[in-house]
Structure formats: structure tokens, C-alpha cells
Amino acid sequence: MTEAFNFPVLSIIVFLPIVVGVAILFMDSKQRDLIRGVALSTAIVLLVLSAFVYLNYNANVDELVAQQEAILEDGGDAPAARMFDAGLAYEENYEWVPALGIRYHVGVDGLTVPMVLLTGMVAVAGVLISWRIEDRIKEFMAFFLLLVAGVYGVFVAMDLFLLFFFYELAIFPMYLLIAGWGWVKLREYAAMKLTLYILIGSVVALVGAIALVLTASNFFTANPTLLPEGAQAFSFDIEQLMYAAELGAFSQPGYLGIESLTFGTFWFPFIFLGFAVLAGIFPFHNWSPDGHVAAPTAVSMIHAGVLMKLGALTAIRVGVQLMPDGAQVHLPWIVFLTLVNVVYGAFIAFRQRDFKYVIGFSSVSHMGLVSMGVATMNTIGMTGAGLQMFSHGAMTALFFGCVGMVYDRAHTRDIPSLGGFVKRMPWVAFAFVVGGLTSMGMPGLSGFVAEFPIFTGMWAASENVVLRIGNFELTNYYSVLVIIAALGIVITAAYVLRVTGQVFFGEFNERRYSDVGDITITDRAILLLLGVPLVVLGLYPNIMAPMIEAGVRPIVALLGGM
Amino acid sequence: MESFDYLRNLPAIAPEIGLTVLSIIVLFLDVYLPESRRRDVGYIAGFGLLTLAITPFIWGPSTDPEAQRLFWGGMVRHDILAQVFKVIVIISAAITCFVALETRELARRGEFYLIVIVSTLGAALMSSAADLIMVFVALETTTIPLYILAGFRRNDVRSTESAVKYFLFGSFTSALLLYGFSLLYGFTGQTNLYEIAEYLGSEAFAGNSIPVLATMVLIVVGFGFKISAAPFHFWTPDVYEGAPTPVTAFVSVASKAASFALLVRFFVAVFPNTLIIDGQQVQAFFLQLVAAVAVISMTLGNVVALAQRNIKRLLAYSSIAQAGYTLIGVAAIQALSLDDPALATEGAANAIAAISFYMLMYAFTNLLAFGVVVLFAEATGSETIADLAGLSRRNPWMALVMTVALLSLAGIPPAAGFFGKFFLFNAAVQANLVWLAIIGVLNSIIALYYYLMIIKIIYVDRSEDDSKPIAFPLTSAVVLGVTAVIVIILGTVPTVFFNWARDAAMQLFS
Fold it and tell me: How confident is the model at residue A5 (pLDDT cuts 50, 70, 90)?
């Protein structure tokens, strides 16, 4: 990729919030406005840099596509790994712990560039919506920035160890934010539950990742000619591991002495599901609604908006991208879990009385669509998954922002006792309707742009995907699943309309909510920041779709699909 | 017979000589200085120890692979492993002295510093001991002063009880260890660890592995006590709780680190990978034994820690669990097959490096945690976890330092524990012990629960005393601040330290 500027932009994006966060911890806690100002300017700088990365990557995407096609045509060794390499931009690559092949290697590809932008958007929105927090604002902002740094770090990590480092780094400030500033009734329980769920998944994946690196190292030691020049056999570098994966290092039969087992087929479920816990995959989704409800608004926004994508992205990056044969064996049954996510999540959301729980469960449902897109293992479905990650991120952050604004003024989230808020908060009502229509998949909004390819992808995959359990073979079932999943969208429509009707349009209780006023200018900025991209992406999907397609193409090539 | 050259032999025990001199100075000053200035003894001990921590570098081991390693008639081995652990124990002693300065009960008692230095002397010798006699003498030199230290608060029943308990358990396991040593000597007629290995490898034991295995069990039990691994841990919670807190810090770090150094050296020397008795029975047995002790220690330590209300007891159980994690690395040393000796050595070196790095980071981390406990208890008189509530408002710096320590113990980046655990689990996976690594990581999740609870209490919970600040005395603020920075450095740029530990491991095989 051609890069428009040659300063270490990704390192700045990752380390700026860490430096500022720590600096804020040392500031005088009485200077609240200064603290807020510093946090906001940091977030804005992050957003600007992220947008810069995004726009620049986008400007070069045609060139990248041409490059990738050329690689596919000329054949040669490991086309997928070379396509992936071609798609990486803003790389920085330094030694970190050479004895163990750990490097500081960051970079972005078509899948992560939108995520970087999304993180920037949610960071700004999160700081803005926390503006009125008075209680220990210093610690809040510091931890929030550390959380943002951890999230950015995972998105840009191109070294498996670095990825885990940031992954775990993000968990701790999140725990404190929820336990410290969350909803009093639930926060301690929910924060601990969330942390333990996520970490159990990730540490099991960590052991799997070490085993993966070791297998790759043994493979390269046995075939030294295949090792890229100057590279170390024992290395956590994701590019090198993908190269090993394409050469078949993880698909050699006879793993653990069982003839039909390969490394990939054994470890894929542990690694994929270990990360997908954070994406809320059924049956490990239980932390998510409690966590989102208990968290303060800014943390709900970043958590549902960005962190859950982190789970999906790492599941793709470490799971599918490094163990394609495992993906081909296991995704055909994991798709059932994603279907449960979509339908069951929507159904539970429909049954909630608490405004925030509705949104919490809706995230479970929508993230199911992301995993479902991944399970298609074809370009169109996975592109849809990538679009859905961005679309859902902005949409759910918008939702949580709306809920937070209503709750701040009404002091209740009980849906039946709310009503008619459009009179006092027309902006919020409008934004909520936009978000709601997005989540229903209304054409013209980003939800449609994302869900349509996922469903098309499912349909297209139906012919190719085979589920084998012993001698039993199941074929052509993706088309059935997609019909059921589409029904989930109907339930989504039902709960969105119910909530919208009740909260914003029902009867307004003048006596009880006499002091409820309109939102502030900063709140409007939040709604615009998160809402406008939904519309823009919906009307003009070409500003993101080609980029994501370029990101998933190497993965699909690795899977042997198209 | 070759004549004995003192000058060639001296560098091997340079830190020990320094420690002896320092102990005499402290003893003298204790008598000479008036009561009012007795606290200065602590400063002299602390700075003296810090200075001595440099001596292992000045008179460092040769990097030449052909160089002579055994000195003083084969009593000590002068290598990088000894260097690493001598630095760890001496710095631990220095930090202990600085922390003790802040306590009313210890600050003015010169003999306290004296006993700490003598115990450090033993620990330093343990790190390099290469002969059964030396091993035992060093062990006792380390442990006997610790019995005295544990009972240092003579008026406190808990302290006295802990000393007696420590003494009874300690002398019992010392006896077992000694019995194991005498068996080894009886079988081989040698006391030098490296010569014992040669005899064990000879024809004499082919087909007769039972005595060797029995010896191994006795020795593992003996070391298991010193590193407070379950099921030999029963003294740990009571001694940790009863002893004066600086003493607890010292026990938990210095004697543990030195014991791990000894454990590694002992088993690499006496039962090396290349020793074959009845196939690889010795290695397989050692592996199973150590893996079992590791699993029991981790699980028991972490699960029981969940129920603790006293911070010192919690840290006691946590230290049992930490010993369990480290034993994963010990198991990994022997787990490698003989098919490829170069790979086996490489893997074993990684495992030993992981153990050394873990002990290095654990020493700083635990001293940091105990340092905060000392200051907190000194200011409030409480050691209950619930009383830590609101610490972040009473002294934000202390809260931050404690958080760094707890994160490191829990293995969360950017604190050093993440790399420490990663290196250990990496070694385990390389040694084909994936199941042990999985048990290890799941245990670290259990542990995360109680560490996070403390952090939550510090930052989130309110207390009635929120508005009463806790003072952070200058000396300990500097010492703990530097320690916290070291913990972060170890957790972000560990390369230098890890390579040092790897060099240490490689020299064990040269």
C-alpha cells in the first residue's frame, strides 16, 4: 500500500491515550474542566488520525484490488499470504523479545481500518457523554483512555503476542469503569462476570496460540527452505503464521496421534469460541446484557460498540485466518450457534422491560449476524460481516447514547413508565428511530448494506458447505438457516417499534417528568457523530465495502473459496 | 594435588564476603549507636545491601564456555544462574530493610537487620551451592534466622506461635531432606552434585530405580516446604500472618527465590535429561511428581485465597499458588524427550529462564504488595482487606502502587506478571505439557477474581475514613515507587532480563 505520510501513525494512536491517561491520573482532581478538556482533545486527535488512516487507505483501495488480482493470477506460492501482505498498511515492525520471536509489529488491513475509525468515533462520543460525571472524573477519564488504547492496540496488532497483550490490557480498566461508575444495583456482579467470561475465553485461546506458534516453528524447522529469509522459525508474527497456515503447517494429519485430527481441527473451536465469547456468541453471551446494562453509558457504548467487534475480529484473525482447515470443519456447526444468537437474542430483547436490556440483547442478536457472516466462508458473506461490525458498532453506540440521555433525565429505564419523550427530546427520538431502522435492515441505512450481503452469502454458501459428523453429512442447510435468521429480523422490527412507540411516542406523563428538558449541544454532537455514518454508509456503501472486501479476500482465498 | 589459589576462588563468593562484613558492621553499630540514632542502622543495612547487589556483576562469572565453574573445592558453582538469584535475594533484603524502617516495632532494633543480612548470606550461598554439604549448610543458614525473625514480636502470641510452627515444620522437612541427601551419598559415595549424576548414570542403577525415586521424593518434599508448595504449605498462612510484615515479605521472596534456584540447579545437575535409568523412568516420575505438586499448589492456593479476609493470609495463599505456577516451569525442564538433545536443551533452557524471570518479577511484585501492607497497617493498625476501602482517596499513590502489584500478581499487562506467566506457559507448551498450561491459565482466572476484588475495594468502595489521608514516608515512597517502575519495566521491555535469565540457563548445561 502506498502511504501518504510516513510517521508512525498507528503507534501514536495506541500510545497517545496511554500517555494522556497516565498523565491525567497525576493531575489535580479539582480541575475537572481541564481534565475533561484534555480527554476530549485526545479523543478528537485520535478520531482525526483514525479518519486520516481510513481516508488514505480508502483512496488506495483500487490499487490494492488490482494488486491482489495480479497475485491471484500469477499463481505462485502462498497467494493468500501475499495478498494479505499487500493489504497491510502503516506497518511498524521492531524486535521486542527476540529470544521468543515476539515483535512489536502493528499494521492495518481492510478489515481493521473501519474498526480503527469506529474506535475513534466512539472514543469521542464516550468522552462527550461522560461530560457531566462529577464523581472521580479524573480516574474515569484516565481509565477510559486506557481502555481505548487497549482496543486500538488489538485492532492494529500484527503479532499474536502483542494482540494478547493489548487484549488483556483492555480488560482491567473496563472492569474498574463498570465496577466503579456503573449502575449501583448490578455493577460489581456484572463487572466481575464480564471480566471472568472474557478472560477465560482468551487465556484458553492464548495456550492454543502458543501451541500454534510452536507447531509453525516445528514445521519451519523441518522444512527450512520454506522459511522466509531472515525470519525466525519460532515467531508470533501473524503474517508469518498465515504463511505457515497456507503452506499447510496446521493441517497435517496425525495431531495427538489421531489420524483424522489436524492441529487446526483440534484447536479451532477453542480459539475461535474463546475469542467469540467477547463477540457474545451463544451460549457464552450471558455476560453481555448484564455487562452493558451495568456499565456507565460511555462504557456501554465502547463495550457494545467496539469491544464486541474485538472478539469477532480476533476470532477471524487468529481462528479462521490461521486455521482454515479447522474453520471448514467447525464453522458448519458453529453457524447453528450464531443462528441461536440472532433469533433468541432478538426474542429475549422483545421480552425486556428495561430499556437498556433491550439494547443489550439486541447486541447479542446483531453480533450473531457478524458470526453468521463469518461462517459463510465466502467473500460476500464475510464482507457483510465486516460491514455489520462497523454498522452495529455505530448503531449500538447511538442506541446506548440515547438510552443514557433518556435515563439521565427521566431517572428510570422501565419502558412502561416512560412515554412521549419526543415532545421533550426530539433529537433523541429522531436518532433512535434512525438507529432502529438501521437495526431492522431498512434500505438506505447501513444495516441493510450489511445484512443483505450476509444473507446473500449464506444463500450462496449453501451449496458448498457440508457438515460432517461421523458418517452423517448435512448439506444445503444454510439456505434454511438464512430463512430462520430473516425471521429474527422481523422480531427485531417488533421490539424496535415497540420500544420506540412506548418510550418516544406514547403518552407523556407531565407530572412525573415535568423537569425533563431537551438535550445539550454536546449530546447533539454525539448523536450526529454516530448517526450520520449510518446514513452515509447506507446511501453510499462504496466508501467501505471495497475496503472490507479487500480485507476478507485473502482469508477467503486461504479457505479455498471465492 | 594442585595448590589452592585463593585469588581465583574469591570472586565466586564475593557477595557473601560482603554480606559477612556488612553484618559485622551492623552488629557493631547496633552496640555503638545510641538508641535515638539506632534507626540509622537500617539505612546502613539497606544501602549496604543495595551496594552489595552490584558485586555479582563486578566479580561476575566468565562467559567463556570452557572456563572453570566449580570453586572452593566444588562447593559452589560460579555461573550466571547464581548471579541472577544473588541479585534477587540481595535486593529483596535491601527493600525489606527499607520497609522495616517505617515500622515502630522493628526500626530501632539493630539485630533485626543483622539477622536479615545473615539469612541473605545463606540465600546467596543457596543460589550457587553445588555440593550436598554446601546445599544443606546454606539452607539452614537461610532458614534458622527466619525462625527467629518470625518470632520477633515476643509479646505477640501470634508471632510466637508462627515461629514455633515454622520451626517445627522446617526442622522436620530439613530432616527429610537430610535423609534424602544421606541416601544419595550412600548410593554414590559423592557429595558433589555433578559427580553424583555420573554415578547415578553408571551401570549400578540400571534396573534398580526405586531407591533413586525414593530419594527424589524426599528431596522434593524438602524443597516443597521451602517454596511453600502444597501439600507442604501448612506453615505458610500462619507464619505469613503472625510474623512481622517485613519479615513475611522477606520470607515470601528471598527464601523462595533461593530455594527455586537450588531446586533447578539440583535437579538439572543430579537428574539431568541424559540420565537414563530404566529408560526415562526418572524423568517421567519427576515430571509427574512436580506436575502433581504444581496442580495441587495452584488450585489449593487460589481456591482458599478466595475466602480470606486478612490481606497477609490472602497473600500467603497467593504465594502458594505462585509457587505452583513456577513449578509448571520446573516440570517443563524434564518433560522433553531425548529424541533431539539440542531441542531438549533449548526447551529446558527456556523453562529455566522462565522460572528465573518469574522469580525476578515475583520478588519485586511481592515486596511491593507487602510494602504497601506494612505502611497501611502502620498507619491504620489494620490488616483486614475490607479496611483497604477508599485507599485511593486516602493516598492515591499508595493505591496505584498496590494496583500495580496486584495486577502483576494476577498477570495482567502492563505489569510484569503477564510476561512472567507467559514465559512459563510458553515453556510448558513447548515441553508438550499443554494440559498443565491450561490448568495454569484457568487457575490464573480464579486468582484474578480475588486480586480484582482488592483493586475494586481500593478504588470503588467507600469507607468512613475516606477523608483521613495516610502518610507515605519519603524513604518508602521512593523505594516502593522505584520498585513499581521496575515491575512495569519488567512487564514492557523484559528482553534484557529474559536474555540474562536465558544465559543463566544455558550456562547450566555447559
Answer: low
**Pick from B18, B13, B241: which is nearest to B118 by CA?**
B18
Contact across the interface for A207 and B455, Cβ inside 8 Å:
no
Cβ partners under 8 Å of residue B66, min gap 6: none
**Alpha carbon of A168: minimum distance to chain B alpha carbons (Å):** 6
Binary contact (A179, B460; C-beta < 8 A): yes
Q: Which residue's C-alpha cell is 516446604? A: B225
Neighbours of A456 (CB within 10 A): 17
- Contact between residue B95 and residue B371 where contact means Cβ atoms under 8 Å apart: yes
Q: How far is CA B264 from CA A170, B66, B178, B287, B356, in A?
A: 35, 22, 18, 13, 9
Q: In this complex, is the C-beta atom of B504 within 8 Å of any C-beta atom belonging to chain A?
A: no
Cβ atoms within 10 Å, residue A546: 17
**Which run of H or of E encompasses B76?**
strand B76-77
Question: In which residue are the cell numbers 448484564 written?
Answer: A290
pLDDT at A76 (0 to 100): 75
Interatomic CA distance for residues A520 and B342, integer angstroms: 69
pLDDT digits (tens, 9 = 90+) for A363-377: 889 999 999 999 988
β A102-108/A89-97 pair status: antiparallel
Q: How far apart are CA A123 and CA A148, in angstroms?
A: 7
Q: Which of A96, A172, A179 sits opposite B412 (nearest CB)?
A: A172
Mean pLDDT rounded to a whole number for chain A: 87
With a cut of 50, list the residues of chain B below it in pLDDT.
none
Q: Which of B400, B434, B494 shows the shortest C-beta gap to A211?
A: B434
pLDDT in tens, A258-308: 878 888 888 999 999 999 888 888 888 888 888 888 888 888 888 888 888
What's the Cα-to-Cα distance from B293 to each of A2, A35, B134, B227, B301, rounded to whole Å?
Answer: 56, 50, 26, 11, 11
Inter-chain contacts counted by CB atoms under 8 A, chains A and B: 91
A95, A122, A151: which is closest to A533 by C-alpha? A122
Distance, CA of B501 to CA of A321 (rounded, Å): 34
How far is A486 from A488, CA to CA, in rounded Å?
Answer: 5
Helix (H) or strand (E) run with residue A93 in it: strand A89-97
